[in-house]
Amino acid sequence: MRPIRKLLPLIATIAIAALATASTTMTCTLTGKEVKECCCTMKDGKMFCKLAQKSVDKCCCKGM
Are the C-beta atoms of 63 and 25 separated by less than 8 Å? Predict the structure, then answer.
């Protein structure tokens, strides 16, 4: 049981590192392109999709 206790911090560190490096990609539903960051911004008080160059009511990215 003691050798396992010594390895638990190492196992936890490896698990955290694996989760942190997992890439999360999103998809713009207007263009179908995969993006790493949301492609929507606020412009004139409305959401604006930079990829589609169009105003939208709510964020068009899926997979967050």
Answer: yes
